[in-house]
Amino acid sequence: MNSLPPQYSLQQKTFLVLLTMVTIGFGWILLPYFGAVFWGVVLAILFNSLYNRLLRATKGKPTVAALLTLLTIVVIVILPVSLIGASLVQQAVGVYDMVASGHMDFGLYFRQILGALPQWVVNLLDRFDLTSLAALQQKMSAMASQASQVAARQAINIGRNTMNFLVGLTIMLYLLFFLLRDGQMLSARIKNAVPLSRRYKTRLFNNFTTVIRATVKGNVLVAIAQGALGGLAFWFLGVQAPLLWAVVMAFLSLLPAVGAALVWAPVAIYFLVTGSTWQGIALILWGTLVIGLVDNFLRPVLVGKDTKLPDYMVLLSTIGGMALFGLNGFVIGPVIAALFVASWDLFVSAEEFHPD
């Protein structure tokens, strides 16, 4: 006759409570620099293969391999992002100054658009109480101006908070070095600590690392491609601050299906209704046939194929993740979605949960 499993003793229960409390406390301590820790882990996963190649090239010297990998990350990731960020701040400040001085008049832009609308559109706006057109124009102009000023102020704040940025960057690079050098040992200890069978742990950990690699590499490559193509089009058509709009399009392209069109489509409509017909048509063709196809073809190949998630789940998890976690959410959201799918697949296929 099999005996029942022994209940936890008071000592064991007390230790589990203590373990939970100190874990929550440690997480609370790290919370102010969650972004630095998170991206340190992400970069360690992304560049682990490079570290392993350098480890073999240096004949098994982990410290040297980790330092060389860290130097590579600084050169190909940190420096380009910093240079683009500095240029972005400069252009955002320029846009803010033009709005404040009246050289960039959103009211004028909207008057031009409203003046070019056909009469049936004006009548439709009247029917839905969206007129007087003057009041609508004033509200939309104020919203656009306010949005531009908020974006510029955020860019200015990034420049003013340089110390916080440098502290976070230092923490990330410092942590990244140890994650590269000691990553396999730390991963093994975490796997051993998780109270699941080896089959479960292997499946879930593999899903975790695969989704992070696919999501970051895929989304970042798509964002860079769409932002660069959109910024190039804006520069060619003479749109002010093309780098600023390129970065905005790159950021929005993290959202599957919609993305960069939220920027280039209104600009194309503005060109059309204000008489710049060829510019509007050219931007629509470029946005649809070039920028749009980058998203339609690259994202499923780079993201959905490796994560084994359907497109709609990638979209919903990305939007939801970014709503909850900000920019970090474009990675966290799909990771949680992939673990959700993997966990339910394990549950459905596990005999211990379905003995019949």
Keywords:
2 domains, mainly alpha, 0% strand, 356 residues
Compact overview of the structure:
The protein is mostly helical.
Q: How would you sum up this structure, described in words?
A:
The protein is mainly alpha-helical and 356 residues long. It folds into two domains: 33-193, no CATH class; 196-349. The chain contains 14 helices and no strands. Helix 3 (48-57) crosses helix 4 and helix 4 (62-101) runs antiparallel to helix 7 (133-160). It is globular and about 80 Å long. 23% of the residues are buried. Residues 1-5 have low confidence and may be disordered.
Proportion in β-strands:
under 5%
Q: What is the H-and-E element order?
A: HHHHHHHHHHHHHH
Give a count of the beta strands, DSSP E runs of length 2 or more: 0
Shape: globular
Oligomer: single chain
What can be said about the biggest beta sheet? none
Gyration radius from CA atoms, angstroms: 26 Å
The overall pLDDT, averaged over residues, is: 76
Total count of domains = 2
Task: Please specify the SSE layout and strand pairing.
Elements: H1 10-30, H2 34-46, H3 48-57, H4 62-101, H5 106-116, H6 119-127, H7 133-160, H8 162-193, H9 198-237, H10 242-252, H11 261-273, H12 277-307, H13 311-325, H14 329-349
Helix pairs in contact: 2-8, 3-4, 4-7, 4-8, 5-7, 9-10, 9-12, 9-14, 10-11, 11-12, 13-14
